[in-house]
Design a protein that fits this description.
four-stranded antiparallel β-sheet, 4 helices, 9% helix, 372 residues, mainly beta
């Protein structure tokens, strides 16, 4: 790092006095992610070091990476979660009714995402690299779909407004595939199901309009295909068949820019789908199931999350396929309407139930993860 001292002269300034810069970066890389906002405020040198691509490599080399799960979540009325409290430095700027919560799978910590913009109700989220995109949903005043996009760079903690979607939509399929965030289907302000689709390049802040799917798909699920580079829109229903979920899916081939159908992919309508190490899994009934293809169908890969109320789950893969995090309501009267998290260890096939603090126990509509 260089800083001016006198006209035309510069003197090297150590990141940490007395330590070589590579050793200092190794030290800074071990700072927990929750403290990165404070770290960046210490000095210009630390801010530059934390923003450099080499910082992520240093965290990985030090074994300091953390898996973060971002949840677009409704407030929990039972907890009196009606907004930020006086003196709360981490109070969110977004609406208390629907906001961005963060669960750190590595440390077990919970927090609100500070500095987040107001989040449209039923907005969706997806991640690519260290960026989290919050897309679409309803305007909380008019309850009409919006095309809004907001992007968080988790490496810097900064939010920015992204280029809006070409179509306002809600209840759509959304997922990252091949380095882009895809959206498809959902419905417009007249509750007409959509078959339009588009792909977002978060680095270029640009949308690519895609060919229409073969049919309308409202309330469809989105995920990547086996190779991780193709987007899959699962199930959904047409305008004329409200609530009549289809049992098929369509996947987009970026090489040919065309959609292809897959038959009998959909598990029961209340199932939550997630891609784990290239395989489509679902959480439904009495087990975790894996899709083996049209001929072989589904096979059991693990037990059902204990105490999860059927039909309430959302799921996301974390740690490069090491774990699956499921959100949903606690079953039975003991749940009291509260929601919890279940963490599935893919290797041991065991579940860990995570009961969040009351202020983080509201219904989760959309979930995404990233490693930082």
């Amino acid at each position: 790092m260089r800083s001016p001292r006198g006209r035309g002269a510069q003197e090297h300034v150590d990141l940490i006095p007395g330590l070589p810069d590579d050793v200092a970066v190794d030290c800074l890389a071990r700072v927990p992610h929750a403290s990165h906002r404070a770290l960046r405020r210490v000095c210009r040198g630390w801010r530059s070091a934390a923003a450099a691509p080499a910082f992520a490599s240093a965290r990985a080399a030090a074994g300091a990476t953390e898996d973060l799960v971002y949840l677009l979540q409704f407030g929990n009325p039972a907890a009196g979660d009606d907004g930020p409290k006086d003196g709360d430095d981490d109070a969110p700027a977004n609406t208390p009714a629907y906001s961005v919560a963060v669960y750190n799978v590595t440390t077990g910590e919970w927090r609100r995402e500070r500095g987040a913009p107001p989040v449209p109700v039923f907005a969706q989220c997806a991640s690519v690299g260290t960026r989290l995109a919050v897309l679409g949903g309803w305007d909380p005043r008019t309850f009409e779909p919006v095309a809004d996009v907001h992007v968080l760079d988790a490496a810097t903690g900064e939010w920015r407004r992204g280029a809006p979607m070409r179509s306002a939509r809600s209840f759509f399929a959304c997922a990252e595939a091949g380095g882009k965030i895809y959206v498809a289907g959902g419905h417009d302000k007249h509750k007409n199901a959509l078959k339009t689709a588009e792909a977002y390049d978060a680095g270029a802040d640009a949308w690519d309009p895609l060919p229409d799917m073969s049919e309308e798909r409202d309330e469809c699920d989105g995920m990547a295909t086996v190779a991780g580079d193709r987007f899959l829109a699962v199930s959904g229903y047409r305008t004329a068949r409200q609530g009549g979920f289809e049992r098929d899916a369509e996947w987009f081939d970026p090489a040919t820019r065309s959609w292809r159908r897959l038959e009998r992919v959909r598990a029961p309508p209340s199932a939550a789908h997630v891609v784990v190490r290239g395989r489509v899994w679902c959480i439904e009934g009495t087990a975790m199931m894996e899709w083996m293809g049209t001929r072989r169908g589904w096979r059991e890969v693990g037990p059902y999350p204990p105490g999860l109320k059927a039909g309430t789950a959302r799921a996301v893969c974390v740690g490069g396929g090491e774990k699956v995090v499921v959100t949903g309501a606690l079953d039975g009267e003991a749940g009291g309407g509260r929601h919890a998290l279940w963490v599935f260890d893919v290797k041991t096939k065991n579940w860990t139930v995570v009961r969040p603090p009351p202020e983080f126990a509201g219904f989760v509509f959309s979930v995404a993860s990233l490693r930082i």
